[in-house]
């Protein structure tokens, strides 16, 4: 697709207003679009899901002119415009292989769109990111990372990234969670959102789904229940529970409250990360990263 002619310099333009509005969940649902901010996230979206991107907004600044030359009109202005970095310039070039419109914008327009863009924002199709459980094929011994009532966008993006890095087969946001396509979630996932399916379910749907795929549900909890205390993760692994055959769904609780007793009663097992110092526990993102990577490393060692 050709780059749209001219540089957009009006932050109040209708097109820019609508992109800016995508910070609101209500507007995302209304317009059927969401924003991908920053070079890293945009790079991964272009590499893995280019079909979902409709528009690319690139912040530009005026380029240099040869001595004695003078820019004439809009065309000359556009030709001399340069993205803020070679990384963004490369992404703009990569986007031309796909059906993506590129819009050059000034700094004040980009500030209206996003304050965290680092010079580039993509607008993508929201519906294309919706994932149904039946559309996620899980192989033998699959690992699912599930998060109950995760509310902080930064945490949500970070745990998606951790699950991706650990080789999980899917991520599930359970019950009343932050919107997966919140700009901060997308940005903090650093592109992992485009590598791994992310589903959303109610608690009841999650429990029914895990039963239907014959998965063992393992809660990450410091204490567990009275009479059913949480087993230290190393002990759980040493017992051979991760047999590489039965799928596992590791369920993490809310950042502040953890998992309620009503859910702990429904899981197959609770495990905890041993504390070797004086801290009582770890925050959600750290716990998820440690647990999921420990499980992944133990599985890979066994295969070797």
SSE arrangement:
Elements: E1 3-8, H1 14-20, H2 25-31, E2 33-37, H3 39-48, E3 53-62, H4 73-80, E4 81-83, H5 86-95, E5 101-105, H6 107-113, E6 120-125, E7 143-148, H7 153-165, E8 170-174, H8 183-188, E9 198-201, H9 203-212, E10 216-220, E11 224-225, E12 228-229, E13 231-232, H10 233-238, E14 248-252, H11 261-264, E15 269-272, H12 284-303
Helix pairs in contact: 3-5, 7-12
Oligomer: single chain
The first-to-last residue Cα distance is 47 Å
Quick one: biggest sheet? Answer: 7 strands, parallel
CATH topology-level fold name of the largest domain? Alpha/beta knot
Q: Which stretches are poorly predicted, pLDDT < 50 over at least 5 residues?
A: 64-76
Number of domains: 2
CATH superfamily of the largest domain: SPOUT methyltransferase, trefoil knot domain
Count up the helices: 12
In the sheet with the most strands, the strands line up as 9-8-7-14-10-15-13
Rounded to the nearest angstrom, the radius of gyration is 23 Å
Q: What is the CATH domain class of the largest domain?
A: Alpha Beta
Q: Determine the structural class based on helices, strands and strand pairing.
A: alpha/beta
Taken in chain order, the helices and strands follow as EHHEHEHEHEHEEHEHEHEEEEHEHEH
Beta-strand residue fraction: 15-25%
Helix content: 25-40%
């Amino acid at each position: 697709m050709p780059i749209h002619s001219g540089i957009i310099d009006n932050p109040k333009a209708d097109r820019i207003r609508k992109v800016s509005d995508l910070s609101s969940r209500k507007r995302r649902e209304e317009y059927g679009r969401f924003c991908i901010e920053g070079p890293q996230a945009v790079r991964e979206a272009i590499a893995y899901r280019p079909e979902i991107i409709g528009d690319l907004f690139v912040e530009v600044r005026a380029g240099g002119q040869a001595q004695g030359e003078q820019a004439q009109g809009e065309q000359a202005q556009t030709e001399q415009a340069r993205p803020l970095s070679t990384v963004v310039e490369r992404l703009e070039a990569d986007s031309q292989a796909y059906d993506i419109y590129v819009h050059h914008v000034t700094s004040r327009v980009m500030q209206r769109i996003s304050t965290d863009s680092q010079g580039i924002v993509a607008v993508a199709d929201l519906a294309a990111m919706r994932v149904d459980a039946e559309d996620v094929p899980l192989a033998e011994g699959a690992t699912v990372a599930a998060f109950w009532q995760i509310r902080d966008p930064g945490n949500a993006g970070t745990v998606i990234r951790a699950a991706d890095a650990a080789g999980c087969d899917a991520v599930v946001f359970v019950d009343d969670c932050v919107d997966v396509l919140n700009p901060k979630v997308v940005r903090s996932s650093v592109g992992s959102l485009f590598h791994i399916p992310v589903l959303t379910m109610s608690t009841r749907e999650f429990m029914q789904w895990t039963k239907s795929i014959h998965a063992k549900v393992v809660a990450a909890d410091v204490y567990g229940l009275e009479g059913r205390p949480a087993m230290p993760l190393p002990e759980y692994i040493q017992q051979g529970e991760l047999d590489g055959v039965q799928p596992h769904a590791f369920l993490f609780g809310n950042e502040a409250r953890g998992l309620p007793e009503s859910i702990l009663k429904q899981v197959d097992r609770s495990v905890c990360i041993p504390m070797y110092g004086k801290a009582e526990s770890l925050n959600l993102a750290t716990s998820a990263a440690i647990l999921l990577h420990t499980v992944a490393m133990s599985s890979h060692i066994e295969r070797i």
